[in-house]
């Protein structure tokens, strides 16, 4: 009977008594109030804590999964850019940091581009991943944003950006800063094509990204509690040596001060985006029809700031609301300087005799 005592009993006892310990990453502490939530519930709630409504940071993939219809989307290829042209090294090689971030995130760089349906409407979206070197804007990220916007223009569909960034990528120096004007020009291309560009500012959106494309949306939406700023609160506080107001540079504060259009709970975000895209694309179709001579606005009565407006007037203002066009430049020489194309530079005129300041 020894085997019953030695083998079977312990087994039965172990089955009955062993409590299975939850895995180490089973719980997540709420950064807002400190309560614990289990990760599965949290994931189902789109990383919004039930305790106090704190919106946790999402990865680019989680973001797009919750955004597109049925969670399905087509990933667009990341554009190729030179890697580490400055051969930068601080504590570690920049190339090593890149390798680590790629392995940890499964992304090529900080921006994930995708095509898919939003409420049945075709859209292009880009999501920045804060895990990839702080979502920093380097050449690869800049090029991805531009590629995404050009893709939206080519396919005649809206572009939606989920911004999350610590700013420019210092390992790429001036080449990183160059992405600010480059992406701004790409936004202008969307505008010329009359395509909606909607920005969702998530926690945190800071630095060079807020100084360029992330603040140029037709509609600026922010998630609750998101830090949105150029220079962070700590830097400002140390510089001016004054106590900053409560909630300074948070989404709600910026909304109250007219910096953004709305603060939207994550659970209502997708539906809101779908509605905005629907309205803007329908308005765009109306304006296009107006340009062709048929005037669908003729029979529609409009409202501006709550007051009813004569449809005729609305139609006229829609027609007159032309974008200021930049000088048309072909896509392939978007970034070639004027002087290279053999044109005279208006700034470099020879000095006029007798004019002040000429020797
Ligand atoms: Zn909480």
Q: What is the overall number of helices?
A: 11
Give the distinct bound molecules: zinc ion
State the helicity in percent bands.
25-40%
Mean pLDDT, nearest integer?
A: 85
The number of domains is 3
Strand order in the sheet with the most strands:
3-4-5-6-7-8-9
Set down the secondary structure blueprint.
Blueprint lengths: L1 H16 L9 E3 L6 E3 H6 L15 H8 L5 E3 L18 H12 L5 E8 L2 E8 L10 H17 L3 E7 L7 H5 L1 H14 L4 E9 L13 E4 L10 H8 L10 H6 L5 E2 L2 H26 L10 E3 L2 E3 L1 H10 L39
Parallel strand pairs: 5-6, 6-7, 7-8, 8-9
Antiparallel strand pairs: 1-2, 3-4, 4-5, 10-11
Bound molecules: zinc ion.
Short description:
Helices cover 36% and strands 15% of the residues. It has helices at residues 2-17, 39-44, 60-67, 94-105, 139-155, 173-177, 179-192, 233-240, 251-256, 266-291, 311-320; strands at residues 27-29, 36-38, 73-75, 111-118, 121-128, 159-165, 197-205, 219-222, 262-263, 302-304, 307-309.
List keywords for this structure.
359 residues, alpha/beta, 2-enoyl-CoA Hydratase, Chain A, domain 1, 3 domains, seven-stranded mixed sheet, 11 helices, 36% helix
Account of the protein in words:
It contains eleven helices and eleven strands. The protein is 36% helix and 15% strand. The protein has 359 residues and is α/β, with parallel strands linked by helices. The N and C termini lie far apart (115 Å). It has helices spanning 2-17, 39-44, 60-67, 94-105, 139-155, 173-177, 179-192, 233-240, 251-256, 266-291, 311-320; strands at 27-29, 36-38, 73-75, 111-118, 121-128, 159-165, 197-205, 219-222, 262-263, 302-304, 307-309. α5 (139-155) packs parallel to α7 (179-192). Residues 295-301 and 343-349 have low confidence and may be disordered. The longest helix has 26 residues, at 266-291. The chain has three domains: 27-56, no CATH class; 57-279, 2-enoyl-CoA Hydratase, Chain A, domain 1 (Alpha-Beta Complex); 295-332, no CATH class. A hairpin with a 2-residue loop joins β10 (302-304) and β11. The strands form three sheets. It has a seven-stranded mixed sheet with strand order 3-4-5-6-7-8-9, sandwiched between helices. Strands 1-2 form a two-stranded antiparallel ribbon. Bound molecules: zinc ion (ZN). Zinc ion binds at residues 30, 32-33, 35, 49, 51-52, 54.
